[in-house]
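Field reference: sequence -> structure
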Amino acid sequence: SLNGLGAIAFRRGDLEKAADHFRAAMDFRREVGDREGVANLLSNLGVIHDRHGEYEEALRTYRRAAEAHRAIGSRRGLATVLNNMGVVNLTRGDVGLATERFEEALRIRRETGDRARIGNALTNLAEARALAGDVAAADAAYREAAELLREVGEISAVASALTGRARLLRRRGELLEAERLLAEAASLPGRDPVVRAAFHLEAAEQHTVRGEGAAAGRAAERGRVLAGEIGDRVAEAQALRLLAGTGTEEPGEAVARLERAEELLEGTSGPELARVLLERGVLLADSDPRGSRETLMRARGLLDAMEARGAVLPERECVEHLLVAEPGTD
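Structure field:
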């Protein structure tokens, strides 16, 4: 079917071909009066807009899909759209709204008894709660997600939940447990490219914290290749940031990687952009103090905006520390 061909093209990273198949399938579904099919295809197109970095268009498409699902009483379909909207909200740094979307999706999925999708919703909600600074709630959600997904045999999704929890623990300094969880995720078979990319990037983050620049670079490069193949711009930007921070490249090359990362993140206003700006500000400190300060001020403004929308990020303390002294002073 056209929808099936679109799904195959999407998995291969050919987003343009996937979109063409989904649009053709949607025209056919309209002709035969398949309202649920149209709603599902709108959601698919929203995902493609998200991958392209067209976040406003993604949200507009998701709103149309949500309206269509509500009109026909499709609660499962509505939950999927709400979840996808939350992902875009999170990318744009709107943690509070993302949390609302994930909570509503989770509530619907609990009511409909869709256990695998309950687990996926819990994983997304855990990430939002982590960014909101609610570490205990995030940890509990990751644990529940992994347990539930194991029960229903969703192995790739289990790896995603384990990787997310490893990220949470790494951010709060529990490196040994974070490493153990990542090793457990690595041992699971059948991980899809999205999960594998996230795994390699978290491995690179852990190597970076431990000062293992070469190992961090290898893991980040694996993540970068996978992110490029699936068209995940945010993950690719994260990989470039990690490669720039390994300490194994010339400063000019590292800054160029961060500039490319910022291009990939155009239209976002989320935590990854703040991290890219922070890294760039640090790298420019010696060669271009004024540019460094301007970049750090941009990071501060972004963090201010995210905090106003529910985020609590450790990068704030680092930015403020770097901005304490004016350029040229002690």
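Note: The chain is about 80% helix and 0% strand.
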